[in-house]
User: Fold these one by one.
Assistant:
Number 1:
Amino acid sequence: MRLVIRPFAIELKEPFALSVGSRTSTPAVLAELHHAGLVGYGEVALPPYLGWTQAAVCQALERVVWPDDPDPLNLDALLTAAASALGDLPPALAALDIALHDLFGKILGQPLYALWGLDLARIPPTSLTLSLAAPEAIQRKARQATEYEIIKLKLGGPDDRALVAAAREATDRPLSVDANQGWRDRAAALDFIHWLAERNVLFVEQPFPARRLDDHAWLAERSPLPIIGDEAIRGMADVIAARGVYHGVNIKLAKCGGLRAARAMLTVARALGLKTLIGCMTETSCAVSAAAHLSPLADWADLDGAALIANDPFTGAQLIAGRLTPRPAPGIGVEPRAPA
Amino acid sequence: MRLVIRPFAIELKEPFALSVGSRTSTPAVLAELHHAGLVGYGEVALPPYLGWTQAAVCQALERVVWPDDPDPLNLDALLTAAASALGDLPPALAALDIALHDLFGKILGQPLYALWGLDLARIPPTSLTLSLAAPEAIQRKARQATEYEIIKLKLGGPDDRALVAAAREATDRPLSVDANQGWRDRAAALDFIHWLAERNVLFVEQPFPARRLDDHAWLAERSPLPIIGDEAIRGMADVIAARGVYHGVNIKLAKCGGLRAARAMLTVARALGLKTLIGCMTETSCAVSAAAHLSPLADWADLDGAALIANDPFTGAQLIAGRLTPRPAPGIGVEPRAPA
């Protein structure tokens, strides 16, 4: 078993603006796991706000040593050993976990959703995320994005109400909003959410800074819309701590360490009565397709990452009737594109 | 897809005595799911104390209607529909769930543990359960059961201390004890558990009646040994409610509705920091083998059900180095025996 690691610079189609800053590219790491004539593909994207660097992820992955005669179907043993070798670095584990799952599915000749017994009819519609922009740009993009059933707005600035009003004028599709920790005042947030609730908004992500548990709990107790934790939710412990603080959790492969962890977190969140959103970074069709296989387990999906990038090295899951749908091909179901 | 349902009377090798009564047979229901030339086998045993009858389970299973063109790999859709048709009857769902998983594995040509990516090296040793008996009989059986690494004693009567002392004299292997709700007094129970803790006992199952949450919470806070809920634990809601009341949970396919539910419960229990025991009824190699595939996810196993019965219609998982180990054959890995 041989792991090939490629640092990769994801180029965004348009600058991506959040309340915490703007960027035109995302560092990423691609992983290829070669075994018995097959290749498993994995990826993790590393937006700077997460605090994990491309170099650290590559260095950690270089440290992984495989057993002499690995059983690639023994995912638990391989991932447990790899997690221990990688230390506390979820994105490195995510890249490896996706590659191992892809290889696993290819060996068994089945797509992951089939091996997991999941029902593609339960894939929720995925939202298209519009980054912070002028109201006219929001309107133009919302009108153009006819293939998406839900539009997600990045908020957290002084013009939130104007942006939502603009989007609402341009489309009657449901919206979701993501404050990216940008709000500060409890009462103002609650007031705004009441206003949003009258405008066909589905949920609100991460209103306040992640560490402000009391503010989120106060808001969740009163909010007419579900309050979803994102920056506050990385691994399983955060899902368990979310009860009483959030109504739901945004689970992303890059944050939690890949498909094995995300699947367990989706199971636990549902059991605890939490709503689940499966999300992504600005990332290639590799990581987004992997997440799409899990999406029948989630209440909502926000898997538009590959639609936002200009240099996707893969083809994979496709938008069908607004749902990002895995290809019925073994593993995660992606194909490398021929180099341009 | 065609379901054949067979009521079956399991005959016990010896009368099985608990603090709640004794019996020489267990009613069961066998299920065969025929599809595309393959047969998936399922089973549920119905010890009377659970309160579910063989007739009710058979009648419920007769009501299941399959879609015209079912996709047997879409386990979630089939099980969700079946659960709804069966109503709130976990043992009926368990028989069907095992048969569907067996068929699923046979279609994919792989044992379930491989499809789940589980590590057989993590299978815990299974205990042999000795039912209530005179101290001499306990000693004889403990000495004979050389292939088991753990002996489980059924307690809950006036002679508990004498029985444990007798077993301890006969073997130095670890013991576990199951009071089957037979204890009444908090202080006496705690005193006894301190005595047990000095005698290489691993854990204590269901000391008091299941509904006595306060007594169990009081005991769990003080006990030097893990306190495990069994009769108190049926489905997922009971696992979640177990935090702060028990240190761990005994998960059985017959109680919770089969492999899908048990797997989710094992995931949730671990995430919540609960210990997990995977248990069984006095049942055939069919249901016991199914549980063995999940056992790498549990801390302890008590999968001796098929060893206690006289008319096992299947061969399946085998005891290897004290661990009940699934055969490396597709699905649950059982074979019907030729009729005698």
Number 2:
Amino acid sequence: MPSLEKGLALGLIDHFSLDLDEVLDAADIVVIGAPPKATAQLLTEVIDRAAHCGSPIVTDMASIKGFIVDSVKRTYPRFIPGHPIAGSEHSGVEAAKADLFQGREVILTPLPDSDERALLAVEEMWVAAGARITHMSVADHDAALAASSHAPHMLAYALTAMLDDHDLLPMKHGGGALRDMTRIAASDPVMWRDIALTNREALLDAMDALAVEHSRLRELIDAGDGEGMEQYFMRCRQLRRAHDNILNPFIPSGEVPG
Amino acid sequence: MPSLEKGLALGLIDHFSLDLDEVLDAADIVVIGAPPKATAQLLTEVIDRAAHCGSPIVTDMASIKGFIVDSVKRTYPRFIPGHPIAGSEHSGVEAAKADLFQGREVILTPLPDSDERALLAVEEMWVAAGARITHMSVADHDAALAASSHAPHMLAYALTAMLDDHDLLPMKHGGGALRDMTRIAASDPVMWRDIALTNREALLDAMDALAVEHSRLRELIDAGDGEGMEQYFMRCRQLRRAHDNILNPFIPSGEVPG
């Protein structure tokens, strides 16, 4: 309980209770923020009781949605699955940041039976925190995040392991590029084990797509195709600059979102 | 000539001359700083004349050594090939930084016939700029840099291209991890084309080693081997933290060294 008391002392929360029924009865919206496996357990428990305890709106923040939605056996139209693309490598009540969601994307994946008013309330909550809302299907969310976040993490892990296995210990001779490309290999091993276990198929698809692209580039290099490489690199430079300038102007570097 | 005059006006250089023989006659050490292909051309021209023009010590800064050394046909014992692991995505005289080499590694790859006193003089020059010196063979340098810098750049390019080809345009939904992993995909296309052309074999070896490691990690994920993944990720976290804390404490993030 020390972290709840600390939150109270810091003025970050107004009340807390360890009595789940009491919490559900009092709440308008229940937001579950925990790693994927813990989120699935907590959601199951909350939704089992919610209908009899004030019927609050329920949402979550887990970075995987298929596993979460599949884990919750009971139908509850006031459950709106969500995923804010924000976070850092820090955790705990002292890492709280009022502007954590400012300008960031929150993906909501409403289910076929989701209540329209519950969806609107969850959207309003996120907009009040400064976020912008995207709707996606559960499957699209998991595939997009496998490609944009989960597979890049696996790449950083594989690169780090390769460098350590190399006879010449090339990590000793790396500069800023290497530093960037391996930063997220310091991410939490248990969290990433759970993500790889719970978003397995979409992650494997993204890793395969990446392997195909990597071997396409390898062919250009093997063939000494300078013109092909220059076009390839030019296209990537344009894509990366568009990403910086237009799509995600709000995201500072050096973060490790979940 | 405007950039040389600007250098003079800014007090960055004391003199300049466009007469190569005059420069060689006056110089103690000639340092060639240019992309790999231009470095090879300039070195050939300088070394062809150096023996008849004051015999200055000659060194270079190119990020590939085998191609450079092979390009210089004439033997000149006072040529010491070098590569400072430092730089940024900026170029030109106004991007000059007095502390650019402070705490950074400079790899020298002396040749079998290299003059010992010339080597010492080049080392003293780099130490005066704040750098630390490593000696490597030409082949080891190119293999280590292929793994620590060139292959990671190819990875960033391949990831960026994969994300753009993906139906769901996942780059729109990326956070800080994606930003880090694609930053160097904005690097200069011509420079990286030249690096891939001139360090082709070592780069292909590093890309192959990475593909093997990536597919090893893929197998753990495919098998749902949670314990294996956790060990793998834990090892990477330790390696990455050791890299941050011990080996390269000087390198700021967000740089794109050549």
